[in-house]
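User: Please predict the structure of the protein below. I'd like the answer in structure-token form so I can feed it into my own downstream comparison script.

Assistant: Understood. Taking the following sequence of 225 residues as input:
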Amino acid sequence: MTARVLVGMSVTDVDRRDDLLAWAHDHGASVAFLQMGDPSLAAELTRAADEGAQTITLAGVSLGPIAPGQSWLRRIAAHWWRERTGHRPEIHVATRLATTRDELPEVMDETRPITGTEPGLTSPAWEQVPSHVRQVLICRGPRCTAKDAEETAKAVILEAMEAGLGDDDLLITHTGCQFPCNQAPVLSVQPDDVWYGAVDAAAARAIVHDHLTAGRPVEANRLPR
């Protein structure tokens, strides 16, 4: 028995679950998520193995910003494979991520097997809390997502890159609901305790330019605290 799994890599892929399910149906595959979505990759691998799959092929799909690299698909799959007790299927992982539906057939045909020698889930570089000055929390709850929070996130990321802000300046994080849903899309900046509402792409760029770079909160979108 052979199983195929499409793995959503980013938060955007969780938001586009229905699209991934349609793509998976075309290829006789199931769907799993690397982060912030169910079923997780580990849970889907366990399900397929428990149902008797002898070979499992994984293809990562990346449709949005801040998706981890393809290497993380191998890391997570290899960690599961090493930890698995009982029946342990052969796992093949696509060598690159699919970013469009048309790419999937070719991506799924170019795979490498998991050997168990892949890097683990820890590294000395990930031991300490990062040294960023501010953390930007971008709400990706249902209402914010429906009001184009993906475009907000893209604008923050691209503008921060353009402004030369790096890991020591910002930690950009997607979150679940931050609660003032009527103000969607919502973005908050910590430890400044500044909250913004109706943050479209233009407002996001202004927040990066004025608040995150120059230290001046943008009053036009600031929410009362």
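That's the full token string. The two ends are 57 Å apart (CA to CA).
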